[in-house]
Amino acid sequence: MDYIALNNGVKMPMLGFGVFQVTDPVVCERAVADALSVGYRLIDTASVYGNECAVGAALRKSTIPREDLFITTKAWISEMGYDRTLRAFDASLSRLGLDYIDLYLIHMPFGDYYGAWRAMERLYSEGRVRAIGVCNFEPDRLMDLCRNVKVIPTVDQVELHPYTQQVEAIRIMHSLGVRAEAWGPLAEGKNGLFVDPVLRAIGYKYGKSAAQVVLRWHLQRGVVAIPKSVHRERMVENYMIDDFSLSAEEMTQITALDTEHSVILDLHAPAEVERLYQIKPLD
Questions:
Q1: Cα torsion through 73, 78, 83, 88, rounded to 10
Q2: Is the pLDDT of residue 282 over 70?
Q3: Are 227 and 186 contacting, i.e. CB atoms less than 8 angstroms apart?
Q4: d(CA 12, CA 3)
Q5: Residue 283's pLDDT is what?
Q6: How far is the CA of 215 from the CAs of 142, 183, 209, 238, in angstroms?
Q7: Using an 8 Å Cβ cutoff, are 266 and 272 in contact?
Q8: Is the pLDDT of residue 16 over 80?
Q9: Could you please report the per-residue DSSP string of the chain?
Q10: Active site residues
């Protein structure tokens, strides 16, 4: 498994397992257990997903040493603000049944995220979290945050896949010392990704699927990817990407697929922001 070093020296797996929309506790616990058995060590959840308890149940039943795991969770919009974020962190920690979190993220760039960040800096200084970061922060908001905090975010988790490549955003992240992490690394199958002729043609050369080609592309760009599946055979497929590399020409072919805009979540749309504000953590 490949790892990257975050700006505070913490090592993070480059390929992880996400549990977004896996709300059935039985299904979620089994999926996390399967992912761990396949070899995944990075598990990504969030308070708003409503499945931290199920993730925690799978972790407690695992025989994998805690220090070999990398657990990420996130604070939602309604959990922004200094005191609210401290309480939200304690609640997430309790639901997960852990003594510390490896990576704690601000989930959305809305609400009092400056107050939340001060709380997260405190949690980091106390050793209750090994790294702190953000999600869905576009370059202007990320740069503004970095100019006004003591601890620079380690990660910005954003929509990132062949159709939304975030080239300029990644350049700015790197200039600030922030690592890019892809949510929806397979575009949630949108734009026909799994049958995309460019991706399938590249995969054919290596005996790989379009999904495997895309995950390899992420890693070669230095981007952490967290694909999701509740099917063990798909987890295995997504994990088996270390036995081939894409050529410079193939990377360029994938670059040409970029639409330069979101295909999953448009945070510039007022209606979408309003929808997000109506969502509350389920746990």
A1: -30
A2: no
A3: yes
A4: 5
A5: 55
A6: 25, 12, 10, 7
A7: yes
A8: yes
A9: --EEE-TTS-EEESB-EE-TT---HHHHHHHHHHHHHHT--EEE--GGGT-HHHHHHHHHH--S-GGG-EEEEEE-GGG-SHHHHHHHHHHHHHHHT-S-EEEEEE-SS-SSHHHHHHHHHHHHHTTSEEEEEEES--HHHHHHHHTT-SS--SEEEEE-BTTB--HHHHHHHHHHT-EEEEESTTGGGGGGGGG-HHHHHHHHHHT--HHHHHHHHHHHTT-EE----S-HHHHHHHH--SS----HHHHHHHHTT--SS-SS--TT-HHHHHHHHH-----
A10: 49
pLDDT at res. 280: 87
What token pair was written down for 97? Answer: 């049944």
Question: Cα-flanking dihedrals φ and ψ of residue 6, to 5°?
Answer: -75, 170
pTM (two decimals): 0.95
Tokens representing residue 4 in the block: 């990257």
Q: Look at phi and psi of residue 188 and say left if phi exceeds 0, alpha if psi is from -120 to 50, else beta.
A: left
* Token pair of 214 as six digits: 């895309």
Q: Would the pLDDT of 142 be above 60? A: yes
**Calpha distance 74→255 (Å, rounded):** 30
Instruction: Determine the average pLDDT of the residues in 240-252.
Output: 97
Rounded to an integer, what distance in angstroms lies between the CA atom of residue 6 and that of residue 126?
19
Q: Which residues contact 145 (CB under 8 A, 6 or more apart)?
A: 113, 114, 117, 134, 137, 153
Closest CA to 42 of 125, 89, 102: 102
Is residue 40 within 8 Å of residue 240, measured between CB atoms?
A: no
Pairwise CA distance, residues 137 & 187, whole Å: 18
